[in-house]
Specification:
alpha+beta; Nuclear Transport Factor 2, Chain: A; 6-stranded mixed β-sheet; 40% strand; 6 strands; single chain; 157 residues
Length: 157
C-alpha cells in the first residue's frame, strides 16, 4: 500500500476522535514543531523562500485553494520564484494549530490561519483567513511538511 493511502486510512480511522483530541504529541515533538513553526512564520514575513522550502520534504504535496496541487520541492521552488517575480509581499501572518496527533513517525495537524498579502498587481494588502490540514514527516531529529491543504473561509477577492 503506498504511503499516501496508508496515511489517509489512518486518518479515516482516527478522524472521529480528532475534534475532541487536542494535542496528542509528545512534549519533545511539540517543542520541535513550535520551533519550526516560529521559524517558518518569520520566513513568511521576510519573504525568505529558501527557509520555507527547507521545511518541506522533497516529495511534498501542497494543495492551495483554487489551484492544482503542487507536487515536490522543485515545484514549490518554481511557485516561490513566480511569487518573487510578481512582487508578493506578506504583511501579516498568523497560524494556530488547534490539534496535533502523532502516528507512526508522522504528525497530523489541523488549525486556522490569517494573513495579508500584496503584489504589484494588487498593491494594497488583501486579507485571507481559513483553515489548514498538514502532515509532518519525521526526518532524523526534526520534521518536514509532507502534505498541506489550505481552505479559505470566505470567497476569494
Amino acid at each position: 500500500m503506498n504511503t499516501f493511502f496508508k496515511h489517509m486510512l489512518v486518518l479515516m480511522l482516527i478522524m472521529p476522535a480528532i475534534g475532541l483530541a487536542g494535542d496528542r504529541v509528545s512534549p519533545e515533538t511539540a517543542v520541535i514543531l513550535e520551533e519550526i513553526t516560529t521559524e517558518m512564520d518569520a520566513a513568511m514575513l521576510a519573504n525568505d523562500y529558501r527557509t520555507l522550502l527547507a521545511n518541506y520534504t522533497e516529495d511534498c504535496v501542497v494543495m492551495p485553494d483554487f489551484q492544482p496541487p503542487i507536487r515536490g520541492r522543485q515545484a514549490m521552488r518554481r511557485v516561490y520564484a513566480e511569487n518573487e517575480k510578481s512582487g508578493v509581499v506578506t504583511h501579516a501572518f498568523s497560524g494556530k494549530a488547534e490539534a496535533r496527533w502523532e502516528v507512526d513517525g508522522m504528525v497530523y495537524e489541523r488549525g486556522t490561519f490569517g494573513m495579508t498579502v500584496s503584489d504589484r498587481q494588487h498593491p494594497h494588502p488583501r486579507g485571507y483567513y481559513g483553515s489548514y490540514f498538514q502532515i509532518w514527516e519525521r526526518q532524523g531529529s526534526t520534521y518536514r511538511l509532507a502534505f498541506v491543504i489550505w481552505n479559505l473561509d470566505h470567497p476569494p477577492h
